[in-house]
Amino acid sequence: MEKRTNVISIVVGRRGTGKTDFIKSVINSTQLPKTLIVDTFDNPPWRNMKTHSNPEGVNRSIQIMEIQNLSRWNKGVFRFFSKDRHQLFTEIEANSWDTLIVFEDATKYIKRTLSPEINDLIIDSKQKNLDLIFVFHSLTAVPPDLVRAADLLTLFKTADGKVSLEKYPWAEIPHMMDHLRKSSNRFENITIQLQ
Description:
This protein is α/β, with parallel strands linked by helices. Helix content is 25%, strand content 20%.
């Protein structure tokens, strides 16, 4: 049996660049039995699996996971959101195994310093067989500790100017940003390995 390599990914791009469609394609290709989309409200694009290239995905709905059911869940794609962020992350950290977890619009609940719950999820991702995707609208919004922990960065067009070389010491990133800025394809993205 091949051992899984669990991946921590950062996806960055401004609104309307195709991040949600990209992540839905990752969900469709995951080998993990469970996927959880974490958000702070009932975000309409996450009510189904519809994408620009797969309009029939509208027929594949994504149900809301109630907090009391998280510990009994064993397969499928669900959404999870709560105004109580501490409870949300405490429950996810305590009950997530063999799961792809998407942190949609992560700026809303991940600040410059990672919370203990997010930090624990990252540290325990291999032992718990988790793939983690953190979605941001700009490179400047990504916490430095998350950049250091991430395995992959998928970059779409952003409104970022020059990026901090201290935070992003990879020479490819400014070239990626320049290429994407000049591209006529608003959905184009580039992924690089950080680890």
